[in-house]
Amino acid sequence: MQGCKKRTLRGTGAVKERLILATLFVLAGRVWGADRVPEELRLGYFPNITHAQALYGRATGEFEKRIGVRINWIAFNAGPTAIESVFGNAVDATFVGPSPAINGYIKSKGGKFVIVAGSASGGAGLVVRKDSGIRSERDFAGKTIATPQLGNTQDVAARVWFAEKGYRLRERGGNLSLISLSNPDQLTMFKKKQIDGAWTVEPWMARLELEGGGEVFLEEKSLWPDGKYVTTHLIVNKAYLANHRETMRKLIAALVEVTERINSDKTTATSILNGQLKKETGKALKDEVIQKAMTRVEFTWDPMCASLKQSAEASRRIGLIRKAPALGGIYALDLLNDVLKEKNLPLVEGLTP
Fold this sequence. Notes:
Elements: H1 2-33, E1 40-45, H2 52-60, H3 62-67, E2 70-75, H4 79-87, E3 93-96, H5 98-107, E4 113-122, E5 124-129, E6 144-147, H6 153-164, E7 177-180, H7 183-191, E8 197-201, H8 204-210, E9 214-219, E10 230-237, H9 238-243, H10 245-264, H11 266-281, H12 287-296, E11 297-299, H13 305-317, H14 334-342
Parallel strand pairs: 1-2, 1-3, 6-7, 6-8
Antiparallel strand pairs: 3-10, 4-10, 4-11, 5-8, 5-9
């Protein structure tokens, strides 16, 4: 009997030991998992000048060198498609504009991704055909204007601006047409006089102007205080960020370093960017096109949070968003500020209440 009791006690002790060890392994896995090195980073971007850091990073391999992880680069034409890829877990992080980020954040109730850094400001606007008859904001009745994709940042900006000028779209009984066209198709139809203008981003603004014979009717920066507003920022899947914080920190550090390189030597950067665009599109931009495009874009890691909030409020005013969204949790800027602090650079601020 005593022997049975003794064996029972030993068995109980062994079970307890196994439970303790299992618990320790689980807890350790949670801690180690936050910094474990992934096999790859699936990173989205657009082949536009407003995504210059991604183009530069892909061309030079600087991102891979900095983070020590292979990058699977995934190109998109516009933001809504990029956001859907985040929802479908097809990408881990992506460069994207503010409007799709706002809509995606609302759709996921803040559960899918966060913004971790800025990338670009400016470089967007409305270009019209010189023979379109458009000379003032009163001349858009009966006209057809293209945007890259329904719900993308430029599409929302166009809808807000035209609504504020008193226009109604044809589908709502008005006399102005907004159509979705990829950037290459915009240029083709612009040249064929099948559209009157396009609200788009660089380098397509410059291409419509210089190759399509158009003229810039409006640069979007003229609508913002001091011309400052976010065009592109970097968002990250929350689950990926939770499991790979050190990888993301290194990516953000690489973003800051590449931004500094672009800003310190625009001539070299322009050559690198044009070479990468040639690889991706099959044709380099003309020198005058890319040089003009580069002058319209400010490359920055600052996400310019205040402009995101204003964009959301403008979307609500014209009915694109039913109610003012709670965006307080959309930013996770701690890693960016850690990098900036190490480099003795000014820190950035999130949204104010």
